[in-house]
Amino acid sequence: MSQEVKIISKRFDDPKAATLDGYLASGGFQALEKALTMAPEAIIDEVKKSNLRGRGGAGFPTGMKWSFVPKQSERPKYVLCNADESEPGTCKDRLILQYDPFSLIEGMIIAGKAIDSHQGYVFIRGEYRYLFDIMERAINEAYRAGYLGKNIRGSGLDFDLYAHSGAGAYECGEESALMESLEGKRGIPRLKPPFPAISGLYGGPTVINNMETLATVPHIIVGGGEWYANLGVPKNGGTRLFCLSGHVARPGVYELPLGVPFPRLLEVGGGVANGKKLKAVVPGGSSTPMFTAEEAMGLNMDYDSIAKAGSFLGSGGVVILDENTCMVKFALRIMQFYRHESCGWCVPCREGTNWLHLALGRFHAGGGREGDVDLLREVSENILGRTFCPLGDAAAMPTLSILKRFRQEFLDHLAGKPCSCGVSGRPALATH
Amino acid sequence: MADNPTLVNITVNGQQLTAPAGTLLLEACRSAHVEVPSFCYYPGLSLQAACRMCLVEIEKMPKLQTACTVVITEGMVVRTDTEQVHRARKSAIEFILTNHPLDCPVCDAGGECELQDMTFKYGAAESRFTEPKRHREEQQWSPIVYFDRPRCILCYRCVRVCGEGMDVWALGVGNRGVAASIIPNHSDHLQCEECGMCIDICPVGALTSGPYRYKTRPWEMKHVGAICTFCGDGCKTTLGIRNDQIIRGDNRDKSGINGDFLCVKGRYAFDFTQNPERLKQPLVRVDGELRPTTWSFALETVAKRFQRIKSAQGGFGVIGSTRTLNEEDYQLQKFARRVLGTNNIDHHRTADFPALATALAARTNTPGTALPLANSSSLKTAKAILLVGNDPTNQHPLLAWNIRTAYRNHKTRLYVLNSGDIKLRRQAFRMAVIPAGGEAAAIRFLNGEADSVPAELTMVGGPDPKRWPQTPPSVPQKIAEGLQDFRARLRQEQDVIIVFGAEVRGEAVRELVAFGDTLPGNTRYIALADNANSRGAADMGLYPDLLPGYRPVADAGARAHFEQLWGGTIPAEPGLNLPQMLAAAAAGKLDALYIAGANPLRLHPSAAEGLRKAFVVVQDMFLTETARQADVVLPVLCSYEKNGTLTNTCGEVQAQKRGGMFEGAKSDLAIIHELAELMGCGFGPAAEDKIFGEIRANVKGYDLSLVQLLAGRSALAAPLNETVAHRDDPELIQPNNDTLFTAGTLGRYSTTLNSVMERRLQKESK
Question: How much is the pTM?
Fold first, then answer.
């Protein structure tokens, strides 16, 4: 039955794996040894065969991304690791950083070999300060042991790797904003095209992948693309780290094959906490449209199935909401986050998230007015698809899905009925 | 397919359009008069896609696209008139207005605000936003710049024009999300050139100017496109006039040679016109004291005295201005030569135009041949520019802007030869730092074949340490190699524009032109002079040895031409130059000195005593050092209060239009005419157009299209004649070395420029 498949997470229980000795003892750097003997095209082919898709949110096939990088380039090429894990509900990359930093180093060297790049940066979320130190230690150890730097393990391959701490901005998880930030500028997204594979960091061709994606690469090289692909379902290769949070009995990060049915995922997490009934599910981090309990129970957790159902597998942050959750408050909480994190560059996101946050706050506090529900929807629709980067969509999509699926709760608030969270629902009082 | 491979066909709203490949969709639409609104898009600045006003539908693209960032491709099908597009525009306006204070009734921008216009055109009739708006207190960032964050729509135009356009980078963005704000990059104030470009480019009233704020409403003003009276670049400044007073200078219609650009002087320094110290009445010295009098008494006093001196065959000296109009300069020298009968006429020279005219004399003006003169805007598209001496950032802000624009848009290679660490080094492809005064030697080296660099150019520590704050390259070998590389690279360039300052004069100008002749293509020249009509004064013949159009006084043919034109005779001998006149006055050899709009005592303070020996008449706006020594002071109108023409340093002639009026003063032209009349030698009516007609017919290179001038455009005068026999007096050329905030007499009486200077001194002394 439903058991975890420990591949990426296999060292999560091993406190020694974060040291080079511990890593080597658990099979570390075998993939690198193998990759050093492979042609770059062969590495990319293996990754393509694995059907590995980006674990950051968009789910773009990793092998294909790598193959877009031009072979010849006047400027240096770069491998970037996006470890700016900031999506609410997502907490997987931090475990890799904490317990298995060498797998990332190994994955990045292999990526470097695949695209003929000799420099990499790990951009670590500003709030992960304690993990930054672990990463730095691991990089230093790898240098000392000759796994990084010039002529890695006598192979003639050069690869330098640097850890860089972000300054605490969700927006810097957007790949081009991350590059701006890494270059020392304000973390705002860039115009695309050009895409990073053509012109990325410092204008050089750049591969930028999520941390989990890169940490998966060594396993694919060792086990073979086909083996990895077969762990999942067609076009959705392998396993991934699901971050279960919210009203679940045993919150945590669980590695399961892609395509696992949602009920089984919930079961792994011990079901809804306190025996309560399931009300709603966020399938892939706070920016993804959410599902009602009925919808969720029929879902398979892979990119294509969830996309078909109208949402995204995203970053794997699955949030469980029980029957006592006030959906107005939940929408408000999400919007508070996006309003705080909007970089402010473009009008609809900057002003729209602020408007929605203020309006939802007033609404939840009992100051709702006739027409507010439609106004919230229209404002969200005016953000959707019209912003410079996906952050605007990330704010609008969950709001729209809540308004659509739980409209009745909003109407109940308007009518002054008791709120299911027990906090609101007092007689309507305007906040101002 | 397009016939021309560089053209691309697209369909917009069913209409076929063709535009060059690489054109932005927004520009392609606008060129076909299809409206695509935008706030953040600004031609020539980097793309933002931030305001989301220009969203359009493009076939085969699922989402709306920003027309300001999409480059047109063959067969692209675009719609700008669909319900979806209208909704997007409406919502963008709605979003912008959520935190906009809508304080239009008290906002400076009210009536000329892009947000007002766009709301009127594309916005919703009512506001659905009922939450509290964010408020932040207004901030003063400099004596000029005020910032009102709530009004700001974050289009980032100011940030870009300050950084990309001005290369000043004083503005940035702070905070994020709805708290994001334009901020000074240097704590709480701007470290900048106070150009006001940020204020002008602001689509709303977020950035306002200290001198103008809360003064008036835009529709209460009459807007007059005048030519700036400060430096020699000849920018158009649109004067806002209310009750004959200048309330504002700005760059409202951007139709001048300056395009988008205007500096602090063009925008704000007009306020000298209303300085309380401005002279409102003629003054005549009685019992050793200057006392107010009437115009008729003052003019009669002058005319009678001049007449007496003339009858006694006494000596006259005439000093003209570099800010008066061409017509006035022309009539002044006519007055000197024809009425006073002297060639003792000069002006404060800041560039050696006669030397350039001499060096280029052999070239003709024949149509079809390439002119060896460049106008200001040709810098913007030049392939390569050689800049010798001068610091255009301070002394020619428009030309510096044009050079930066060329560098930004065309990767123009700029070669800088200078003794100082001038700001344009940042755009330089090659920069050679030479010791102060080494320009002539450097030009000789450029034009020579010798590989060895003269020792005077490689002197260790040669560059002036005051103008070169950083450690100069101290190894002579390195300096020599730098110059050799400079020359080698420069020789590969073609169609070079050579721009040179007052450091290059006399023989060095001829050497520079000889070097220019060795470069491939059409080499063109710009000589840099400091004041608004320095070039005009030179062209109009305010020289002791040159008649209008650089025709030698000694040339009997030239003399005969003007004698016939004016009646009477012109002395055959060249006259005294400016210092010679001052010396002659001190020696008691000049009986009268007529100084029209000049202040020679600023540069020659020791001559004050000597002036008292002659009868001195000064025409000026203020009681300058020179005016204080005068026997008669006649208050005059400034350039902004007169009609006529001005010639900028490149030779571009533009019409000056009267903006303000000033009670009590007369124009220099009117005074000259009245004096001539009183001396029985009438010049006819003081009509600028008549006089300009005479100039057109009789001054080489000024036969310009009147239509063009009257339409407010410029025409390049090329006063090249067969030969110019000019006495080289290089020592007479004394540049002002103005900064952005100094400008001789006018600068001293400009409250705004002074406030900027004071603030800087305060900051420095802290």
Answer: 0.93
